[in-house]
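User: what does the whole thing look like in 3D?
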Amino acid sequence: MSSPKRIGSIIVVTGPSGVGKNTVVEQVLDNVDGIAHSISITTRDKRPGEQEGKDYFFRTRAEFEKLIAQNEFLEWAEFAGCLYGTPKAWVKEQIENGLDVILEIEVQGAMQIAKQCPESVLVFLSPPSFDALKERLNGRATETPEKIAVRLEKAKNELTQRHLFNFEIINDNLEVAVSNLIHIIHAERCRILKAQ
Amino acid sequence: MSSPKRIGSIIVVTGPSGVGKNTVVEQVLDNVDGIAHSISITTRDKRPGEQEGKDYFFRTRAEFEKLIAQNEFLEWAEFAGCLYGTPKAWVKEQIENGLDVILEIEVQGAMQIAKQCPESVLVFLSPPSFDALKERLNGRATETPEKIAVRLEKAKNELTQRHLFNFEIINDNLEVAVSNLIHIIHAERCRILKAQ
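Assistant: Here's the predicted 3D structure for the full assembly of 392 residues, as structure tokens:
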């Protein structure tokens, strides 16, 4: 029946570092139309194979702090000594054009979005177990043992926060995890928005 | 991560008579595991091809009224002169065993479920247009013109109630409608239940 033009959803995919957010999100983007991937700005070092403007916008800490002062972030967070943020204006433009926007962000940032944009869809990606997460991080050749230890300590706390989110997907089987995120995105497109 | 045993969801599929609830629900049941179909009790006449205990339990008005008095219904409603109701104990047992239960019911009944079971998932199936609904009902050889007129009048009112539900699926293309209901069911299985 005649509905007003749909506003897109902000789909936040979060979870501990190493849980596989990037892989799940990439596969979802390959399989769903009408969805855009928000590219974060970060001060962390570029990993081998990462590209400016595709994986992240890489900026200095001074440049990042200037953007914070100009209120240009939807959320930002410091994690393992690096800053990460989501550019606000771009996300707003996409959802007003009816596109969904997927944000793949750290747990701290996701909690900021939950407060600022309560209508956003918050998905927590969990590892099948803490040991599985540990193995995955140790398998990453790009991180020092010290950085891994910091990430694991952080992950422990983050896992206790997952009840604050709308959906939990356990990344035990990649194909199932990808399907579940696709189900959530399509279901949200059928959601009836309550009058504000 | 270690989650408590999941309680199933009550998935309510409602919408005006003639919108195609039955066809959509049948196809979903054929394609989703872990879901049970609640069979309603009704006082309406059996249509050709319908089977006792498969499509409905067919009862007399006196028998139905006795069940109301015994508080045996999760919801019941009168529609076009006939009574329809959902047996309570059976639904409760299924969801406690972790199965989802799909109820395919009239709009009045769905609104009772919304009040009694606020955690249930309320899906409104809409026709692409009112004229499309009219054509569909006229194509049903099993109904008298008088009964169709009553159903259409009722449908007009029901369509104004769809904002009371969680999801709207427009039954324009059967395959898409079925997919959307499947997406909603799987998404709900990932939902994190908030502490009561």
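In plain terms: Chain A has a mean pLDDT of 91. The first helix of chain A runs from residue 21 to 31.
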